[in-house]
Amino acid sequence: MIRYFLDKQSAGRHILSWGIWIFPAGCLVLASLLTLTGLTEPLFLQLNGWFNKLLPASVWLHITNGGDGYVAIALSLPFCVRNSRFVIMLMGAGAFMAWVPRTIKAYHSLPRPPALLDPEQYTLIGDAYYGGAFPSGHTATIFFIVALVFFMYQKPGPRFIAFLAGILVGASRIACGIHWPTDVLAGAALGWIISALAYIVFSNWPKQISRSAEFVLHRLPVLVVAAGIPWYETAYEGTRMGFVVVCIAMISLWGWLNVKKTGKAYGNPCEQEISLDDRRF
Description:
The chain has 281 residues and is mostly helical. It contains 13 helices and 2 strands. It has helices at residues 11-15, 22-37, 40-54, 57-64, 69-80, 84-92, 94-108, 113-116, 137-152, 156-175, 181-202, 211-228, 240-262, and strands at 208-210, 273-275.
């Protein structure tokens, strides 16, 4: 049944390849081992201390915003250039991506580090949160995009940049003192799995898209990000200016890449039908 949704030359090659599932499986196995061996808390304390020696708190606050849904969309803009299928997957599964971690958090309602540890034992950056630890929603969000980039781009450059961003955001949740390593590992696995499901569904659907619809899809993420610049408030005090800078930088990079790729900033839409499967993204 799954193969019905898969394009034989792209989705089938990627999603049904066992190598694609090594990362989420490894994350879940490692999280299980940490839980069973009781090493979650010692590892958290070790990593929290080491990360905060590596970078100052202000830097970690800006990094952790990369897992905020709005900021994550901004960071994905360079990958949306002339890539309708990436935008369809990003927007099509975005609401589902936001809903699943919250549902799991509400069901488990596991305590975060501030609920169990003495404040003198570790570094807390920002406000203290006490419940809803598992999984890390920020990590799930960023790895949802990381996996999309991994599925849609074959070149190592985009994959490396996306994966590095995911690792940094995941590490920032521990550095800020609000998530256990198991939360981060589970969040990374969850984001990757949801991305794979989105790829299965949208890699071969829709088959056809008009150029006018493609014109809108190419610019939709930019409009969403630009609309949030005047009013969106980040979760951490003192990071709004960083959010604005990131949004403007990503919009500018999107514009430059679009001009570089097409030779012009804007195209004229027409109603000719084209197949997404005939394009190489």
